[in-house]
Write a structure and sequence with these properties.
Length: about 375
C-alpha cells in the first residue's frame, strides 16, 4: 500500500497538563504511523471550547513557541460543541458507515476512527495504534472500491456525485480522518522521548520567573481537594494530609534540608503543610507570585528533586520533560480497580530518563 496522507485531529481538553499529553499523543501516533509505513498524518487540533481550554491554548502558544507559536499552528481550528464540528463528525460517520453494511453494527466502523481515553485506562499503546492503522487501511480500501461494499441506501446519480465530492474532504479535513483523545503511557514517553522533548521545547525566556536552588526539593500540591467532590477520592484524585506529606511522602528528607512549595492553593491554605514540614526540622518556603507556567518552569528546572501527585498531569509533564532533575518522588492512591498505581515507572530505557530516579510511594 502506498503511503496515504490522512489528517489526525488531536482533541485538546482540560488545562495545560492535559493539553501537553494530548499533543504528545498526536505526535506519537504520527511517528508510529511513519514507522509503520502506511500513513503520513497531518496533525490538526480540536479545542474543548471551554474558558480553561482557551487559557491553556494561550499558554502553549506562548511557552512552547518553538513549534506552537500562533504563526506556526492553530490549536483551535474547531471547537467540540459547535454545530460545525458536530456536522463534520456526523458526515464522516454517515459516509464511513455506508461502506460497512456487512457488519452487524456499522456504527463501530466510524467509532473505531477515534482513539479515546477512559478514566481508568490509557488506551494509546503500540497495540492500539496498530489496530487503528489496520482499521484505517480497511476504511480507505473500501472507499476506493465502493462497488464491493454497497451503500445502505441507493442515491440518485447527482447525490452520488455530491458524495464523491465530499469524500475528497470535509471542511478541509481528509476523509476519513482520525480523532485522538488519549494520553500516552510512560512506555511511549520512553520510546519517543527525544522527539517529544524537542516538540515541547519550553520557552524559558518568556515563561520563567525564578528557579529553585540546586539543593531544594520542590513539592507540588495540586489542590484536588478544593476542586473535586468525594467521588474524586475513589479514583485517586486526592491529596495527602500535611502529616502524611511531612512524615511519609517526604520522610526520606533529613532535618535541615530545604523544601520549596508550589501549587494552586494559596499560601494560607497550605500553611498546615508548611508547619508540618517545619516541625520535622526542614527549611521550608512557599513560592508565591507565579503564574501557572512559571510554576511549570520552577518544577521543570529543579535539580535535586521534585515531588508531586501521580494524578497531576501538570507535574507529570514537568517530571518527564525535565532534563535537569535528578530525583522524582510520586504519591499514588491505590484504589483497585478504579485507580491502579504504575509500579513499572522505573523501567525506562531512554538515556535521559534513566538518569532520573523515579520513586513511587503508594498510599
Amino acid at each position: 500500500m502506498q503511503m496515504v496522507n490522512v489528517d489526525l485531529v488531536v482533541y485538546l481538553t482540560g488545562e495545560l497538563g492535559n493539553h501537553l499529553l494530548k499533543i504528545a499523543s498526536g505526535k506519537i501516533m504520527q511517528l508510529r504511523a511513519l514507522e509503520d509505513g502506511r500513513f503520513n498524518f497531518t496533525l490538526r487540533y480540536l479545542s474543548q471550547g471551554l474558558p480553561k481550554s482557551s487559557v491553556a491554548i494561550k499558554e502553549v502558544h506562548k511557552c512552547f513557541s518553538k513549534h506552537f507559536s500562533l504563526d506556526k499552528v492553530n490549536l483551535k481550528e474547531w471547537e467540540e460543541n459547535t454545530y460545525r464540528w458536530k456536522q463534520i463528525v456526523q458526515n464522516q460517520a454517515t459516509i464511513v458507515e455506508s461502506y460497512f453494511t456487512d457488519w452487524d453494527d456499522p456504527s463501530y466502523a466510524s467509532k473505531m476512527l477515534t482513539i479515546e481515553r477512559h478514566e481508568i485506562f490509557e488506551d494509546l499503546t503500540i497495540e492500539s495504534i496498530h489496530s487503528t492503522l489496520n482499521h484505517l487501511e480497511d476504511v480507505i480500501n473500501r472507499m476506493k472500491n465502493p462497488d464491493a461494499y454497497p451503500l445502505i441506501y441507493q442515491k440518485e446519480s447527482a447525490a452520488q456525485g455530491e458524495r464523491q465530492q465530499n469524500v475528497k474532504g470535509i471542511d478541509s479535513l481528509s476523509l476519513p480522518f482520525l480523532l485522538i483523545d488519549a494520553w500516552p503511557p510512560n512506555s511511549l514517553w520512553d520510546r519517543y522521548w527525544n522527539d517529544l522533548h524537542e516538540l515541547l521545547t519550553f520557552n524559558e525566556k518568556e515563561c520563567c520567573k525564578e528557579r529553585p536552588d540546586v539543593d531544594e526539593t520542590v513539592l507540588h500540591i495540586r489542590g484536588f481537594t478544593n476542586e473535586l467532590s468525594a467521588w474524586g477520592d475513589t479514583i485517586g484524585f486526592r491529596e495527602l494530609s500535611p502529616n502524611q506529606t511531612a512524615y511519609q511522602f517526604l520522610g526520606h528528607l533529613k532535618s535541615g534540608e530545604k523544601v520549596a512549595i508550589i501549587g494552586r492553593p494559596s499560601e494560607e491554605e497550605l500553611q498546615h503543610f508548611t508547619q508540618a514540614l517545619r516541625d520535622r526540622g526542614l527549611q521550608v518556603r512557599f513560592v508565591k507570585g507565579h503564574t501557572g507556567t512559571e510554576d511549570f518552569c520552577f518544577l521543570k528546572t529543579a535539580t535535586k528533586e521534585i515531588a508531586g501527585n501521580e494524578k497531576s498531569t501538570f507535574f507529570r509533564n514537568a517530571a518527564l520533560l525535565s532534563d535537569t532533575v535528578k530525583s522524582v518522588t510520586i504519591s499514588c492512591f491505590h484504589y483497585p480497580p478504579t485507580n491502579v498505581c504504575d509500579t513499572k515507572i522505573k523501567n525506562f530505557a531512554n538515556n535521559i530518563l534513566t538518569k532520573k530516579s523515579f520513586v513511587m510511594k503508594i498510599f
